[in-house]
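Students often ask why inverse folding is considered easier than folding. One informal answer: many sequences map to the same fold, so there is more than one right answer. In these notes we will look at a single instance of the problem. The structure comes first.
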């Protein structure tokens, strides 16, 4: 952790900083930068493989949406092509509004009561126009008509109750789904999205204010040669590597090409001390070094 704190300090990471990060340590460096800027500024994590590097540790920090929304991920090739275009102009994206034509999509819903009224009226109409021969037939017809009417009304009531229950169930289910969706959205951290055109334009015109690299699988010079042009003049950078020799070679190339000043290789090591009365001394049994850091300040090309 002392290595991360030292890198953040050397790269001048703070609020309103635009930090370029190459993180191959599961996102711990990106998470530290996102927490340090506090939602003011941006963190752009680059990768040079087919798939983005994992940033699992960023999701474990329980960042606020404003903080997590400032973490971007983009490939090195996209940034390189952006720099090659040099005169980068943001494209005007036309918004296509989809209009819903309600005239042709009007749904026709049948009314159960209306249908029942039609049926009942039809029966009454037939009964009114049909001559009755005797009282016995009239009684049977009346009883059949009453039974049919009561059956239809009961069916309509059952249908209405079923429809009402179905509508209530649908509303309750939709409410539960929306509640779950809101809960997931509030609890999940949306980070690592693609940068917006405005962000790309700003980075292309003004550059990043800092660079942090922790990629021991690559040669530091091959990384810094690609990423250093994206920094603005006087921007600080810090490169971590587990071995000293690759950083020494990178430092030599930076000096030879006059790309940076104030170059220095430091060894971050926080040593534990035993503090007791008359027995205060460094602990003799400790782990070895946690690597080395190359730091410097970018200068404009002569």
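Output (designed amino acids):
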């Amino acid at each position: 952790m002392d290595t991360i704190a030292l890198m953040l300090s050397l790269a001048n990471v703070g609020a309103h900083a635009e930090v370029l990060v190459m993180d191959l340590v599961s996102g711990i460096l990106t998470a530290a930068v996102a927490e340090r800027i506090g939602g003011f500024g941006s963190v752009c994590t680059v990768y040079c493989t087919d798939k983005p590097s994992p940033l699992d540790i960023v999701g474990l920090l329980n960042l606020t949406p404003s903080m997590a929304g400032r973490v971007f991920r983009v490939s090195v090739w996209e940034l390189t092509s952006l720099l090659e275009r040099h005169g980068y102009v943001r494209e005007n994206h036309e918004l296509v509004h989809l209009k819903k034509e309600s005239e042709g999509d009007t749904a026709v819903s049948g009314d159960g009561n209306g249908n029942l009224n039609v049926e009942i009226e039809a029966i009454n109409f037939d009964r009114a126009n049909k001559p009755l021969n005797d009282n016995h037939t009239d009684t049977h017809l009346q009883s059949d008509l009453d039974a049919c009417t009561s059956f239809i009304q009961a069916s309509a009531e059952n249908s209405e109750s079923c429809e009402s229950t179905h509508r209530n169930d649908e509303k309750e289910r939709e409410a539960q789904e929306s509640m779950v969706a809101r809960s997931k959205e509030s609890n999940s951290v949306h980070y690592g999205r693609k940068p917006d055109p405005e962000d790309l334009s700003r980075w292309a015109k003004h550059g990043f204010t800092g660079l942090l690299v922790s990629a021991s699988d690559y040669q530091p010079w091959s990384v810094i040669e690609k990423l250093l042009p994206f920094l603005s003049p006087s921007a600080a950078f810090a490169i971590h590597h587990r071995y000293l020799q690759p950083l020494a070679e990178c430092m030599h190339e930076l000096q030879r090409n006059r790309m940076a000043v104030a170059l220095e290789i430091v060894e971050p090591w926080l040593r534990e001390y035993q503090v007791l009365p008359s027995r205060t001394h460094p602990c003799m049994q400790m782990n070895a070094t946690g690597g080395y850091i190359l730091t410097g300040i970018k200068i404009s090309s002569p």
